[in-house]
TrEMBL record:
This is Arrestin C-terminal-like domain-containing protein. The lineage of its organism: Eukaryota, Metazoa, Chordata, Craniata, Vertebrata. GO terms for biological process: nervous system development; protein transport. Residues 297-313 have a biased composition (Low complexity). Residues 162-286 form the Arrestin C-terminal-like domain. One of its GO terms (molecular function) is ubiquitin protein ligase binding. Pfam families: Arrestin_C, Arrestin_N. Residues 297-376, 390-434 are annotated as: Disordered. GO terms for cellular component: cytoplasm. It comes from the Eukaryota. It comes from Channa striata (Snakehead murrel).
Length: 434
């Protein structure tokens, strides 16, 4: 047995599963048969991830360290014969990922103890693993609510000449599950061919990706259920259930070397038709009441608020920013004339020249309000609204109105209610004789 009779590690309350941010404590027990000279007794706590490209190999090609702490529980001296205990305590970082063991990599946590002896003497060491569980709350996963749906149409050839089509649609009742819950799979298969299909099947799949130089994908079937066949020209709805066994969670938050994904594969044995429905495996199940409360308490979208604000601005801002025009006398106004080719150099209206007569260019224009052949006095009723800077053309001749023609009535605004006109507008005759 030698000098050392017992050298082991014990966790407080025999606890072996911890959470990030929690402290791990216990004792190191050393029982010697005779006095043992030692330089120091040290305890180390570490966590790391190692991956490889070879199956079940521990010669890691890539490693990732999460924490590594060491301290001495005993200094240089001599351990007397008998049993000695040394307490320890470590704090686990909040960022540490969940423990995981796969075919091509592992996330390991362990606590080790060392007895350093003088030169040429035998060193002693022991270790004990513990496990870390970082809970995955499915209610915090984005886009987790509602069923997961997919559809695929597959064409195939049979009997060398005939081509058939199979339409496969499937969905799961949820997108997130915990161990012990049931995945309800509903599939619709429409066989638009003259050949009977193979058996339908639904499988819960796990795909683990190890980020080596050339990523390694480890795919395995967790559970599988099988159904019947679909005869030619028939459409069948198939419902099945898959119980979720204890599995590693979907997300290894804090780990950059290993990625875990789950999905439900719905397929036909023949022809080769398959679709996938991604799902999440977590530790805290979905709570529909929590989802409804969040939906009810969520504020309206920014787009709706922006639309409401714009509408409010339009409703209130139009009357506030548009200048108020002087009120006009309520009467029937003649319509605006059709534009003529000859236009004055100014923006103000002008009468046609003296040589304007029937048969001249534009002389055949007619107006619904004034069915006269001569249109010399047909002007816009707004043409004489006075505004500062408005002036009239100087090339008009003094011409009496044609007999039988009716001059348009000029509405005069009420200047007692407006501030900007300070002079009376020119009369009709003055505007025509200027």
């Amino acid at each position: 047995m030698g000098k050392l009779r017992q050298f082991d590690i014990t966790f407080d309350k025999n606890k072996e599963v911890y959470s990030p941010g929690e402290s791990i404590s216990g004792t190191v027990t050393v029982h010697v048969n005779q006095p043992l000279l030692c330089k120091a007794i040290k305890v180390n706590c570490n966590g790391f991830c190692g991956i490889t490209s070879k199956l079940n190999d521990t010669a890691w090609t890539s490693e990732e360290q999460y924490f590594n702490s060491t301290f001495s529980v005993a200094d240089k001296g001599t351990l007397k014969q008998g049993e000695h205990t040394f307490p320890f305590k470590f704090l686990i970082p909040d960022s540490a990922p969940t423990s995981f063991e796969g075919n091509y990599g592992r996330i390991l946590y362990r606590l080790r103890a060392f007895i350093d002896t003088p030169r040429f003497a035998k060193d002693y060491n022991t270790e004990k693993a513990f496990y870390l569980l970082r809970l995955l709350n499915l209610n915090e996963v984005p886009d987790i609510w509602g069923p997961c749906c997919s559809a695929v149409t597959q064409q195939f050839t049979y009997m060398l000449v005939k081509t058939g089509t199979v339409v496969l649609k499937a969905q799961t009742n949820m997108r997130g599950y915990t161990a012990g819950q049931v995945i309800q799979v509903t599939a619709s298969i429409h066989n638009q061919s003259g050949k009977t299909t193979g058996n339908m099947a639904a499988s819960l799949m796990q795909r683990v990706t190890y980020e080596t130089k050339k990523p390694t994908h480890d795919l395995r079937t967790i559970a599988e259920v099988e159904g019947g066949v679909v005869k030619p020209g028939k459409e069948v709805e198939w419902k099945e259930q898959i119980i979720v066994p204890p599995l590693p969670q979907s997300s290894l938050a804090g780990c950059d070397l290993i990625k875990i994904e789950y999905y439900v594969k719905v397929s036909l044995k023949s022809p080769d038709v398959m679709l996938t429905l991604p799902v999440h495996i977590g530790n805290v199940s979905l709570d529909e009441k929590l989802h409804l409360s969040k939906t009810a308490a969520s504020p309206p979208s920014a787009a709706a608020e922006g639309s409401a604000a714009t509408a409010s601005t339009l409703d209130t801002g139009t009357s506030a920013t548009t200048p108020t025009l002087p009120p006009r006398t309520a009467q029937k106004l003649p319509p605006r004339p059709i534009p003529r080719p000859r236009v004055s150099s100014h923006n103000s209206p002008s009468a046609p020249p003296a040589d304007y007569h029937e048969g001249a260019e534009g002389g055949n224009l007619m107006n619904n309000g004034f069915p006269n052949k001569r249109q010399s006095q047909l002007v816009s009723p707004n043409a004489f609204s006075y505004a500062p800077g408005l002036f009239f053309s100087q090339n008009q001749q003094n011409k009496e109105p044609t007999a039988g023609a009716t001059a348009p009535s000029i509405p005069h605004p009420d200047y007692g209610v407006t501030a900007y006109p300070h002079d009376a507008p020119p009369s009709y005759d003055e505007s025509c004789n200027t």
